[in-house]
Design brief:
The chain is α/β, with parallel strands linked by helices. Helix content is about 45%, strand content about 15%. The protein has eight helices and seven strands, in the order βαββαβαβααβαααβ. α1 links the parallel β1 and β2. It is globular, with a radius of gyration of 17 Å.
């Protein structure tokens, strides 16, 4: 049997790195994508690219060649009150968090469908459910749009053997979360108090869900949005 290839974006750190490592344990060939050069024993190939640029997204697709599993994880967060949100920052957040996943799925989805099997897993955010924290309006809007894209891909690609699903992580111990803590040191304790499990998740606890959705066992899960938030928000 030919080894399947997974393309995972944002693998230099955090959830993306955990996803790459988890998928590798199942014998998948993992291609990582990030704006930062990096290495990891679990990642067979790293493509360095700026996903905020259309031409770079298309180059990633070309270099990755045949992909069976696409995990759109790369994201950027700019915290700024909506009243003063810089429009260049707006365009950047939307480009990385929403346009890049669309482009990668648009380019790779049809080839998966032509082979009769494929998986698209989009990493959204609890902000898509809630509107996000006070200064994350644009990030949350992009992540909500990603959920809508997921459902559309699921409807259009499902008949040809390709599933598309989203995951909405909540409080995860990542470098992005660390940046939020630096901005407001009290926020970790406040959020933890609202989570029934009374803790933040490890990136690996998101990665295991990705691995399941990417497997043959999840063949009948399509168009779903799965919360991984410890009960912080229940939908």
């Amino acid at each position: 049997m030919t080894t399947r290839t997974a393309l995972v974006t944002g693998t230099a750190q955090g959830i993306g790195r955990a996803i790459a490592r988890e998928l590798a344990t199942f014998g998948l060939r993992v291609v990582g994508v990030d704006i930062r050069p990096h290495t990891d024993p679990a990642i067979d190939e790293v493509i360095v690219g700026d996903l905020s640029r259309i031409d770079e997204c298309l180059r990633v697709v070309s270099e990755a060649a045949e992909v069976d599993i696409l995990v759109n994880n790369a994201a950027v967060l700019v915290q700024e009150p909506f009243e003063t949100f810089d429009m260049d920052d707006y365009d950047h957040v939307m480009a990385v968090n929403l346009r890049a996943p669309f482009l990668l799925a648009r380019e790779l989805g049809p080839s998966m469908a032509a082979r009769g099997w494929g998986r698209i897993v989009n990493i959204s955010s609890i902000g898509a459910r809630t509107g996000g924290l006070a200064d994350s309006s644009v990030y949350s809007a992009a992540k909500a749009g990603l959920v809508a894209f997921t459902k559309n891909f699921a409807r259009n690609l499902g008949p040809r053997g390709v599933t598309a699903n989203a995951i909405t992580p909540g409080a995860i111990l990542t470098p992005m979360a660390a940046g939020i803590f630096e901005r407001d040191p009290s926020i970790e304790a406040r959020i933890t108090a609202d989570i029934p499990l009374r803790r933040f998740a490890k990136p690996a606890e998101v990665a295991t869900v990705v691995a399941y959705l990417a497997s043959d066992d999840a063949a009948y899960i399509n168009g779903a949005t799965i919360d991984v938030n410890g009960g912080w928000v229940m939908t």
